[in-house]
């Protein structure tokens, strides 16, 4: 073992992408194993690697961790991205949960039937502009800091940055009414670890394409 965290998932974003983002933001290098067949997935289950028979799987500090939320909170705690006290942690949790709700819509979008794509895209746009982004615009404006919680970089900032870029891929002008988020995006993009992750050739995955959707359906078919 090299000591690097080892990530097992498909070669695409899915539920592993926030984990890649958080490790990269913390400046942690990691290894990846890509599932390409149902047999590989079934073997992980048979060998007892997957507690709930689900990926993502992250091997870190001698543990075989599953469940995205548990993985992310462990990484955030380990690398000091989880606030200074219980109150800050509660705020980070609230923000992260809210962003995860928006990201769930984006996660499922590639699997929409063709006749539902436009409706689902409208729904993402409406929720981003009217429900989710106004919250973070207000938080940044009210306490006048660079980051969402306290004045310290945290898991919530990483997750928000990922969400902003994911929504912008589908709706390029989505931040036009959110000046604070525009400033936040620029600042975050220039943080050395995130800047590195946004460069070509980094472990960041491209938007899901037809091949990714096909692989997901093949690996996880019942």
Automatic annotation (TrEMBL):
Alphabetical keyword list: Transferase
Signal peptide: none
Keyword Transferase tagged: yes
Record-annotated GST C-terminal domain positions: 85-209
EC class (word): transferase
Entry superkingdom: Eukaryota
UniProt xrefs under InterPro entries: Glutathione-S-Trfase_C-like, Glutathione-S-Trfase_C_sf, Glutathione_S-Trfase, Glutathione_S-Trfase_N, GST_alpha, GST_C, GST_superfamily, Thioredoxin-like_sf
A GO MF label: glutathione transferase activity
Start and end residues of each GST N-terminal domain: 3-83
EC number(s) from the headed UniProt entry: 2.5.1.18
GO BP annotations, alphabetical order: glutathione metabolic process
Pfam families documented for this protein: GST_C_3, GST_N
Database matches in Gene3D superfamilies: 1.20.1050.10, Glutaredoxin (3.40.30.10)
Family recorded in the similarity comment: Belongs to the GST superfamily. Alpha family.
Name of the molecule in the record: glutathione transferase
Species the sequence originates in: Rhipidura dahli
């Amino acid at each position: 073992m090299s000591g690097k965290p080892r990530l097992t998932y498909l070669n695409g974003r899915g539920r592993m992408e926030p984990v890649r983002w958080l490790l990269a933001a913390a400046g942690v290098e990691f290894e990846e194993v890509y599932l390409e067949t149902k047999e590989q997935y079934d073997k992980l289950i048979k060998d007892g690697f997957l507690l709930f028979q689900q990926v993502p799987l992250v091997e870190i500090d001698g543990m075989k961790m599953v469940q995205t939320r548990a993985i992310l909170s462990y990484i955030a705690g380990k690398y000091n991205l989880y606030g200074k006290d219980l109150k800050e942690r509660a705020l980070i949790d609230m923000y992260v949960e809210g962003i995860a709700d928006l990201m769930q819509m984006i996660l499922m979008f590639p699997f929409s039937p063709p006749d539902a794509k436009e409706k689902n895209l409208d729904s993402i746009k409406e929720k981003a502009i009217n429900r989710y982004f106004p919250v973070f615009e207000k938080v940044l404006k009210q306490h006048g800091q660079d980051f969402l919680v306290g004045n310290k970089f945290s898991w919530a900032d990483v997750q928000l940055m990922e969400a902003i870029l994911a929504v912008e891929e589908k709706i390029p002008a989505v931040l036009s009414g959110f000046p604070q988020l525009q400033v936040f995006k620029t600042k975050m993009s220039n943080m050395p670890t995130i800047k590195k992750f946004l460069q070509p050739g980094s472990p960041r995955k491209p938007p899901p394409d037809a091949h990714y959707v096909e692989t997901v359906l093949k690996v996880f078919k019942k």
